[in-house]
Amino acid sequence: MPSDDEPPELQEDQKDQDDDFVGLRWSVLQPDSVPGSDINAGLPPWEGPAECGTTIPHQQARKKAAKDFVWAFTWSADLIELVVAETIRYAKNELKTVEARRWIVPGDGRSGLNEGRLMVYLSVFLYMCLCPLSTVRDYWSRGKLGQSFVQNSGMTCNEFEAITHALHFTDKTSRAQPQRDKMYKIRPLVDLCNKAWAQHFEAGQTLSLDEKRVKCKAHGANFKYNKDKPIKRGYEFVSVSCPCCGYEIRTQPCAGADEAMSRDARAAGSTEATVIDILRPFFGKNHCVWFDNLYTGVPVCARLAADKTFGGGTVRPNRKGLPDKFEVPKGASRGYVAVKTTTVSVTNERHEHKNVKLYYETFLDTRQVSFLTSICPTMTSKPGKAKTKEGVWETFDVTCTTTPRLYNAGMGGCDLGDQLGSYHLRHMQNKRPYVVLFFHLFTVSCLNGRVLWNRTHPKTEVVTVKQWYDMLCDELLAEGQVISKHAEEDSPVEVSDEETLDNDEPAMHRIEWWLKQPFSLRNDHKHVPMHLPPTKGDNRRGVCILCRQSRKGTKKLKWTPNETERQRAKREASVRRSSAHNSLMMGTGQLATTKRLRSKCRACNVWLHFADDFTEGSSCWELWHDTADLNTLRV
Predict the structure, then answer these.
(1) Strands of the sheet with 32-33, listed across from one edge
(2) For residues 180 and 189, what is the distance between their CA atoms, to the nearest angstrom?
């Protein structure tokens, strides 16, 4: 039924088209017999490949690394650019903490989030799929299984969580109003994935259409709950897959009839609109699409057949437009078949009136099963085996129509993809559903890349899902680190107006600025300690520049004979970090890294701790002006 918020003209179109499928005249049909067991005898003519394949030349594909099958073939440069650009935009405008922004927003010598860091980020996610732990932070905990790989990745837990928190794929402020697409936050990513998946894969004649459920407890638009499903809470996708290998060619979130679809598709209703919209690229090619009773109906099969896309599936007997339920005669044996047919007049996508034939079939197996197709059924026979009451296996010929056999051969594509993805799956739960759906789409891209790899390589190089994830982890991590290093070297040092001094001097209060300056700038004997006395209205104070770089829990270094200057500096710095908080020495005592000081160096314009006795190396003042390499103090 049309909803109340639909435009009046759209409600009229839907009402008129619904009336076309009521009161159809069905007549009994005796299927023709075809000698042999060829189930493709009744299929429409097909000019494409007999089996699914890839458009990538095999010799060229064998020279590619595993990461290229995902990063170049099942993803695209536009998709990567979208993820990086929108994530940086959101972090710059919406994230409030400086700690979270500095991992993503480029500036001040940092490259921020780029293609390389995104590679490293996704390689860590794939490793989480292979080595499941309770929480994300467990992978950075000492003694845990995933610590070695995560440490080698060079990505901290804070950076991983910051990127996850900032992931975005669209700017809601730039949306055209009014807009009724409930899944607009993930829609650009889905469209780019569909384009990339279909670019390098050549589908066969038979396709499988089914729903996929992504586990997610965060409520949002189109949140689904079904207590009878293995995944009770989540979001559903409608996917078109290849039945022989499980390659997912197209997918769409189940958003009903919304503005993202065409007007003709929305006029068909919610479920029918989803099917028509996702199958539109296959119109006019004589494909055979099979789906289950959730989508099968007279309007769907008729509209698809009018655009030369045939198929069908199991159907519920109470669907609109179907005849009365078949009465199976008493004593009917297994294999009983009854078929009825009708002719429906519909309008296709090119606004042409077409008369299509539909076939309603009842097949008696262990129970009564109903089918509705636009493919003419024919009777075939095939050899089968059955065990008699005496326990002896006997061989005999099974006579049935081609419909059940075609349905069984073409309906398992999406289930096969779900099975492959469930072997090594990690549910990245998040309060924002579109982040969870992003990881689902990336997982599908990885599985599609594996199919392309196995199609272009000999049988001796065919890989399993676990082997494929292992290869992707290592190659994405290595390539990402190289790209990140080059981006870091090419990043200019940008200092904002807030970080510069009032007198337009360089940002001397930042340790990154001093690390690039010569040692003579801190050791030219022109430095005078300055203490600002507390006066009314004077709030000038700051944190010690050295204590701010120290870290808690540093292991104490024991004194060894003939120690080098670097070892001595590290040992002395470690001792000072463990000193009492009232000694005013460099360390990690109470308030050492957060206490606001009034003591500073006038020439360096930095805040420093002073000691009561100015002995050598006894305070942050001495360490700052006498240590040649400041990196030795950051242990």
Answers:
(1) 32-33, 378-387, 393-401
(2) 18
Contact 260, 252 (CB under 8 A): no
What's the pLDDT at 399?
75
Cross-strand pairs, 241 = 208, 248
Which CA distances in Å does 88 have to 101, 163, 171, 250?
A: 9, 9, 11, 28
Residue with tokens 């206490």: 595
387 forms beta bridges with 393
- Min mean pLDDT across 111-125, 212-226, 266-280, 366-380 is at 266-280
Rounded Cα distance, 131 and 145, in Å: 7
Residue pair 31/339 in contact (Cβ under 8 Å)? The answer is: yes
Which of 96, 111, 85, 286 shows the shortest CA–CA distance to 188?
85
> Are the CB atoms for 114 and 96 separated by under 8 Å?
no
CA distances from 441 to 88, 194, 396 (A): 20, 10, 46
Say if residues 609 and 584 touch (Cβ distance below 8 Å). Answer: yes
**Which helix (H) or strand (E) covers residue 341, if one does?**
strand 337-347
Taking only the tens place, the pLDDT of each residue in 595-633 is 577 778 878 888 887 754 344 445 677 778 888 877 666
Give me the residue label for tokens 């290869």: 471
b/e per residue, 236-267, with b = 16+ CB within 10 A? bbbbbbbbbbbbbbbbbbbbbbbebbeebbbb
- Strand pairing of 248-253 and 233-241? antiparallel
Residue 11 Cα distances to 20, 185, 269, 574, angstroms:
15, 28, 10, 76
Rg for the chain (alpha carbons), in Å?
A: 34
pLDDT digit string, tens, across residues 424-441: 988 888 889 999 999 999
* Cβ 190 vs Cβ 43: under 8 Å: no
Q: Which of 540, 533, 546, 545 is nearest to 507 (CA)?
A: 545
Say how many residues make up the chain.
Answer: 635
251 SS3 class: strand
Which of 503-511's residues contact partners 24+ apart within 8 Å by CB, and which partners?
Answer: 505/605, 508/604, 508/605, 508/606, 509/542, 509/545, 509/605, 509/606, 509/607, 511/545, 511/548, 511/549, 511/630
pLDDT surpassing 60 at residue 580: no
Q: Which residues pair with 27 in a beta bridge?
A: 341
- How far is residue 453's CA from residue 66's CA, in Å, rounded to a whole number? 8
CA–CA separation, 436 vs 234, rounded Å? Answer: 10
Q: For residue 223, which amino acid is it?
A: F
Tell me what pLDDT residue 353 has: 84
Copy the structure tokens of residue 22: 């009521």
Q: What's the confidence (pLDDT) of residue 381?
A: 76
Distance CA 191, CA 185 (A): 12
Distances (CA, A) of 474 to 66, 149, 153, 484: 10, 9, 10, 15
Which residues make Cβ contacts (< 8 Å) with residue 67, sequence separation at least 6? 119, 471, 472, 475, 476, 479
Coil, strand, or helix at residue 82? helix
The C-alpha angle 469, 151, 543, rounded to 5 degrees, equals: 140
Which residues are CB-contacts of 160 (< 8 A; sequence separation ≥ 6)? 121, 124, 136
- Does residue 531 sit in helix, strand or coil? strand
List the Cα angle 580/581/585 in 5-degree steps. Answer: 85
